[in-house]
């Protein structure tokens, strides 16, 4: 069945092109200076920019894609009109742009800019007059030295309003009056003399298409321009070619190629099939050649993490090429934020945008990077394309398997002869790379078409190759004006095919990487809603993806990147699309990704977990390139040839060098041209009929059926430079920041409070370090973008740190008269009761951050300050104090800035205040190498506080990151202050007195309090026991377990003038049980067994959590409710004691006697000639007890039993020791008949519980096992 490829009169959505546009100078309105170009009037008028206009566009409008006149004009000529003379370069230039409609549909514009001679006398006269005025003002200002000269110069500069009608109102006599004294400078650079110079002005031909057909559009426009500049008229009027491309050339069907005809030859385009990657015609190879593989991977990482990306280049097409290349590599994800690869000077206010963006800005000649006003650079990726440089934000994580990925990409580039290191500059001009062949005869043209369609056999193809070789030997050269040799044509075709194959192979490598990472993403989708409406109504509070479970099966090296990527809008949108696909059709990109995943699973026979799988290279490079090669070498469809139109006589005349005014009535709309329908060429292949939905495949920007999946700003508003539109845009930015703050704080609270409690005495909730770092990094980014919105005065790269520095300078000026010499020293303030000032002072927190490290950047200092304020629960309070200085705010910020919107600012601070309801250790755990001042306070029992005068104690504080070493407390003092490397979260404290302190050195200690002078965290170490010889268990050293005191309790405690609120401690609980013999009899066996099971269960849960979520193991072993206390209760149950008047009974006494009894029995067996060896468990029990007793530390009987349990559980011996203790003859004499130790069922249950703990590797803190070598 033959299929035609005509689109005559069809819907605009099925056409190859939507609009044809011509932009240039409007001779009727004259020259208007481009006020937004940011140029100085000191420049010569010939170098200034002037406003351009859309001269014509056809058709007037299309359905679903209305024409945006102002946006297209701005993007066709981003710098406005440019004038040149015959001494300047007049080479044509090509660039492209993209326009996104309000419904999310993206269109592509392709622009061929050339210089056309100015024939309007008014324009020439106006330029002559402007130059003469500039010359006079320039010389007068340079020769005069008085201030009045500059005033007169500025006064004589023509304003915008006076320039509007300059060309039409200026009379010839006015121009002649300025010619005196000017002739001496004519002929200089930038000069203009109408009598001698020829004036040229830029004009743009633009084609707007629904899909990115870069090469085809570039060739069509170049051929159109060549027809204009040629001395020979084209075969048909230009209207015929424009009409043909607008109304008669259709989109190629998916998986097919299409040939249509330009002015000078055939043009081929192709479209991927349903199972292939979307259409990507921009040359990725050129982008990789410019930036290098490393930089491109770094740039893609920044885009995936939704940083702000700013591209910088002199060439507009390079900006578009890199931007489109990066967004193409994002498949299956889509950029959700501002996307403007080209922004002109009037749109530079968008650099203030406090949202992620991907924008490009032109690098003007002589301009420096420092001249760019970038309000916030903390999360900015700056890409200097011409210098082959990518400046990524600090702490950018590595892309998963980045080293292997770079190696694979390098191999692909090398296979095409491109160096992977980058820095290769490719010169691309509109004339050299885009023009299609102009062959010398129709025979050669037909041969070319037959070769392209694969219709030449072996002999014919060999003859054509011989003809090509003959053309080369004969010089081949000029077949006609503007034409090319046959050899050159073949070379261009080969280069185009090579670029297309390289494109698809590079994209396949990245697509396979995303498949490897997210191939099982469907397993972690959470479908909790019953219908679409309920999901939409509860979307903010619904978790649609199980991030924790997903991260738990990923390699550890990938977690830093993945944890941040899962928080991005593009991933959320991707997941939302999957969720709503239960009720509506899936988006094309997601459908394509899912189908590729299903196909890969069919051939994936590996049963390895994703975290253990090795890196797998892409295996479909050859097949993907072969599919494109088949389509390009053998065309599937041919469109209608251009033909004569029903035009008025005398129209369409050829004027070499001038693009004519086209007939509007012919091009305004499609006409039925049945006369030429017989010229339609049938398809060379047959294919089944496709539905209309197939033509909207995934190769373009997919149409958004669901508006809730896209959060981007409307581009039509962004491209509007009017003051009203700019104000409205920044109003939307303000509302967006407030909404983002609400969602982020809500998410942080939900994650922080929703985690399973870790048993730390108070049941404190814990969050994984990975998730905490990710969420807080997002908060830092939000604060940077908020403080950068509307900022006009900045120091360094961080907007918030810049504001803090200005505030610090202001406060120090106010405090200067009251300051004492040396009071700025941190050590001085700390030694003079400084902590009170430190705890609540914004300035003091800043000063500490500034002293942390000399090499810390402004961004790093800002993040450290935010971490510290958040951990101290003073972030909202500090920011509120910072924002009370209204005069400073007005000085630093523009009127539209978020921080000057009072109502929104207060709501922002309110949302941040909600974070005070949870505890963070983000500063302590992030900045681990800094020095922290600590204060340790020993609090004795109030009634016995006088006893502290007789002791000389020492302390050693231990935490997650190390210990402080032994710190001696001065005599007659109860506190000590010292500096130490950050200890992290505190866990244990060793408290002791010297061996030679004497019998009088004893004290009943209630608790020890350790205060972190920087973060304000207070740890309380309950004791409740005696310290000293001859009292209690005679311990000279205690190992205490710490508890983090809530800020409320800390405030109630003041400066520790009294006893802090008492919390239960293990020893106090034991004393309650052992208070009397009657108390022992009331200790029920069921309660003891339940406590034991609970303690073991907490340990099992601890080890079954991801390592980042685990709490403090020492607390679970030795703290209240820990294993040591539970086993102590077990051994005390049913214990007989003859000490009626001595309250304390120690389990260690029984353990020591049991060991002595075992050794005695063993010795008696030796005396009676027994040959039975002592069992290994019995031998280890005796050895461990002797080692503990011979330890140089005097830790008392309670401390020894604690050490006994910890060593036994660490070395998996505890389950073997308890049966030995139960079988010892001493047990029957020491325990009552109903004791748990003598109950076989209870003992068997205990051993099974202890055996379950043998599956885990337990590492003990150094403070627990110090002095014991086992």
Would you tell me the overall average pLDDT?
Answer: 78
Tell me how many strands there are: 24
> What would the principal axes of the Cα set say about the shape?
elongated
Helix fraction, binned, reads 40-55%
Provide a count of the helices: 48
Distance between the termini: 88 Å
Q: What does the radius of gyration come to? A: 40 Å
* Stretches with pLDDT under 50, minimum 5 residues: 1-9, 145-184, 427-443, 475-483, 673-697, 701-710, 756-767, 819-839, 1048-1065, 1067-1081
Structural class: alpha+beta
Largest sheet: 6 strands, antiparallel
Q: What is the percentage of strand-forming residues?
A: 5-15%
Describe the structure.
Helix 25 (723-754) packs antiparallel against helix 26, helix 25 packs parallel to helix 34 (902-913) and helix 39 (1085-1104) runs parallel beside helix 47 (1240-1252). Helices cover 42% and strands 12% of the residues. Strands 1, 2, 3, 4, 5 and 6 form a 6-stranded antiparallel beta sheet that branches. It has a 5-stranded mixed beta sheet with strand order 10-11-9-12-13, with helices on one face. Strands 19-15-21-22-24 form a 5-stranded antiparallel beta sheet. Among the domains are: 19-129 and 195-271, no CATH class; 284-416, DENN domain, C-terminal lobe (Rossmann fold); 746-759 and 771-811 and 841-927, Methane Monooxygenase Hydroxylase, Chain G, domain 1, CATH 1.20.58.900; 931-1051, PLAT/LH2 domain (Lipoxygenase-1, Sandwich), CATH 2.60.60.20; 1085-1265, Methane Monooxygenase Hydroxylase, Chain G, domain 1 (Up-down Bundle). The chain contains 48 helices and 24 strands. With 1270 residues, it is an alpha+beta fold. The N terminus is likely disordered. Strand 21 and strand 22 form a beta hairpin. It is found in: Membrane.
């Amino acid at each position: 069945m033959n299929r035609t490829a005509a689109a005559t009169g069809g819907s605009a959505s099925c056409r190859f092109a939507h609009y044809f546009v011509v932009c240039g100078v409007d001779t009727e309105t004259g020259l208007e200076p481009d006020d937004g170009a940011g140029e100085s009037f000191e420049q010569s008028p010939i170098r200034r920019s002037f406003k351009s206009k859309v001269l014509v566009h056809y058709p007037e409008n299309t359905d679903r894609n209305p024409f945006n006149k102002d946006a297209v004009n701005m993007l066709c000529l981003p710098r406005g009109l440019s004038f040149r003379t015959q001494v300047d370069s007049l080479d044509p230039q090509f660039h492209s742009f993209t326009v996104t409609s309000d419904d999310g549909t993206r269109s592509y514009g392709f622009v061929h800019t050339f210089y056309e001679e100015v024939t309007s006398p008014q324009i020439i006269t106006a330029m002559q007059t402007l130059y003469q005025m500039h010359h006079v003002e320039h010389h007068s200002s340079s020769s005069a030295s008085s201030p009045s000269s500059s005033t007169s110069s500025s006064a004589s500069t023509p304003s915008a309003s006076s320039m509007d009608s300059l060309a039409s109102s200026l009379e010839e006599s006015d121009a002649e009056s300025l010619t005196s004294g000017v002739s001496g400078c004519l002929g200089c650079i930038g000069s203009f003399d109408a009598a001698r110079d020829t004036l040229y002005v830029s004009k743009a031909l633009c084609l707007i298409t629904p899909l990115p057909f870069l090469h085809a559009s570039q060739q069509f426009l170049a051929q159109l321009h060549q027809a204009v500049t040629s001395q020979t008229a084209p075969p048909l009027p230009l209207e015929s070619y424009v009409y043909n491309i607008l109304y008669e050339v259709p989109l190629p069907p998916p998986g097919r190629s299409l040939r249509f005809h330009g002015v000078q030859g055939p043009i081929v385009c192709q479209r991927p099939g349903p199972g292939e990657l979307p259409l990507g015609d921009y040359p990725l190879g050129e982008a990789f050649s410019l930036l290098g593989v490393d930089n491109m991977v770094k740039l893609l990482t920044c885009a995936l993490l939704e940083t702000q990306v700013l591209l910088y280049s002199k060439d507009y097409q390079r900006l578009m090429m890199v931007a489109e290349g990066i967004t193409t590599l994002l498949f299956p994800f889509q950029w959700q934020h501002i996307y403007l690869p080209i922004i002109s000077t009037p749109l530079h206010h968008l650099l203030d945008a406090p949202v992620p963006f991907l924008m490009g800005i032109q690098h003007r000649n002589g301009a420096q990077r420092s001249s760019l006003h970038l309000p916030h650079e903390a999360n900015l990726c700056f890409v200097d394309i011409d210098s082959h440089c990518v400046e990524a934000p600090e702490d950018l994580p590595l892309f998963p398997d980045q080293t292997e990925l770079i190696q694979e990409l390098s191999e692909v580039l090398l296979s095409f002869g491109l160096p992977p290191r980058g820095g290769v500059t490719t010169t691309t001009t509109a004339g050299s790379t885009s023009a299609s062949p102009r062959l010398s005869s129709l025979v050669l043209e037909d041969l070319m078409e037959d070769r392209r369609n694969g219709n030449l056999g072996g002999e014919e193809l060999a003859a054509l190759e011989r003809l090509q070789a003959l053309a080369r030997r004969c010089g081949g050269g000029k077949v006609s004006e503007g034409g090319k040799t046959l050899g050159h044509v073949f070379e261009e075709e080969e280069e185009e095919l090579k670029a297309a194959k390289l494109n698809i192979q590079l994209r396949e490598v990245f697509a396979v990487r995303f498949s490897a990472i997210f191939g099982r993403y469907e397993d972690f989708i959470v479908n909790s809603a019953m219908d679409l409406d309920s999901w939409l109504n509860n979307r903010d509070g619904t978790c649609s993806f199980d991030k924790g479970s997903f991260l738990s099966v990923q390699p550890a090296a990938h977690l830093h990147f993945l944890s941040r990527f899962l928080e991005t809008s593009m991933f959320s949108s991707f997941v939302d699309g999957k969720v709503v696909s239960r009720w509506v059709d899936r988006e094309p990109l997601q459908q394509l990704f899912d189908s590729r995943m299903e196909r890969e699973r069919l051939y994936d026979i590996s049963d390895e977990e994703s975290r253990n799988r090795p890196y797998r290279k892409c295996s479909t490079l050859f097949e993907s390139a072969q599919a494109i090669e088949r389509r390009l070498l053998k065309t599937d469809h041919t469109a209608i040839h251009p033909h004569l139109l029903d035009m008025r006589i005398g129209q369409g005349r050829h004027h070499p060098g001038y693009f004519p005014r086209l007939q509007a009535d012919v091009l305004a709309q499609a006409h039925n041209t049945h006369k030429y329908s017989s010229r339609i060429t049938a398809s060379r292949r047959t294919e089944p009929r496709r539905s209309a939905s197939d033509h909207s495949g995934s190769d373009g920007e997919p149409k958004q059926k669901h508006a809730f999946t896209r959060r981007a700003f409307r581009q039509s508003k962004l491209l509007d430079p009017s003051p009203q539109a700019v104000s409205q845009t920044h109003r939307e930015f303000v509302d967006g920041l407030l909404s983002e703050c609400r969602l982020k704080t809500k998410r942080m609270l939900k994650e922080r409070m929703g985690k399973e409690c870790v048993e730390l005495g108070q049941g404190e909730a814990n969050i994984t370090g990975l998730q905490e770092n990710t969420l807080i990094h997002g908060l830092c980014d939000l604060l940077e973008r908020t403080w950068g919105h509307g900022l006009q005065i900045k120091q360094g790269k961080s907007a918030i740190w810049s504001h803090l520095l200005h505030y610090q300078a202001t406060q120090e000026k106010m405090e200067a008269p009251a300051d004492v010499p040396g009071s700025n020293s941190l050590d001085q303030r700390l030694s003079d009761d400084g902590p009170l000032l430190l705890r609540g002072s914004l300035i003091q927190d800043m000063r500490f951050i500034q002293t942390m490290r000399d090499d810390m950047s402004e961004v790093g200092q800002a993040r450290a300050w935010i971490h510290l304020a958040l951990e101290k629960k003073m972030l909202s309070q500090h920011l509120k104090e910072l924002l009370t200085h209204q005069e400073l705010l007005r000085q630093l910020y523009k009127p539209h800035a978020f921080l000057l919107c009072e109502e929104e600012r207060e709501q922002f601070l309110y949302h941040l205040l909600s974070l005070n309801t949870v505890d963070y250790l983000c500063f302590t755990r992030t900045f681990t190498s800094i020095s922290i001042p600590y204060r340790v306070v020993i609090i004795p029992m109030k009634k016995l506080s006088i006893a502290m005068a007789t002791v000389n104690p020492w302390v050693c504080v231990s935490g997650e990151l190390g210990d402080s070493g032994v710190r001696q407390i001065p005599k007659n003092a109860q506190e000590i202050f010292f500096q130490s490397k950050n200890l992290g979260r505190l866990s244990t404290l060793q408290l002791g007195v010297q061996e030679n302190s004497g019998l009088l050195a004893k004290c009943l200690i209630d608790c020890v309090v350790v205060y972190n002078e920087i973060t304000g965290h207070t740890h309380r170490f309950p004791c409740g026991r005696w310290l000293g010889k001859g009292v209690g268990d005679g311990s000279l050293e205690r190992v205490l377990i710490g508890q983090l005191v809530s800020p409320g309790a800390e405030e109630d405690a003041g400066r520790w003038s009294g006893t802090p609120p008492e919390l239960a401690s293990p020893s106090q609980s034991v004393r309650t049980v052992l208070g009397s013999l009657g108390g022992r009899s009331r200790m029920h066996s069921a309660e003891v067994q339940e406590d034991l099971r609970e303690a073991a269960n907490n340990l099992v849960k601890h080890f079954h959590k991801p390592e980042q979520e685990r709490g403090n193991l020492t607390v679970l072993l030795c703290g209240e409710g820990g294993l040591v206390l539970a086993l102590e209760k077990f051994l005390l149950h049913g214990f007989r004691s003859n000490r009626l008047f001595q309250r304390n009974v120690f389990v260690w006494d029984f353990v020591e006697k049991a060991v002595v009894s075992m050794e005695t029995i063993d010795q008696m067996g030796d005396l009676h000639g027994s040959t039975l060896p002592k069992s290994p468990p019995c031998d280890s029990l005796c050895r461990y007890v002797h080692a503990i007793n011979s330890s140089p530390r005097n830790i008392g009987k309670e401390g020894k039993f604690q050490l006994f349990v910890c060593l036994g559980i660490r070395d998996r011996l505890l389950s073997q020791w308890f049966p030995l203790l139960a079988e010892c003859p001493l047990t029957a004499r020491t325990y009552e008949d109903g004791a748990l130790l003598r109950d076989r069922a209870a003992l068997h249950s205990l051993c099974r519980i202890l055996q379950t703990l043998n599956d885990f590797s337990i590492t003990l803190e150094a403070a627990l096992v110090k002095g014991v070598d086992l």
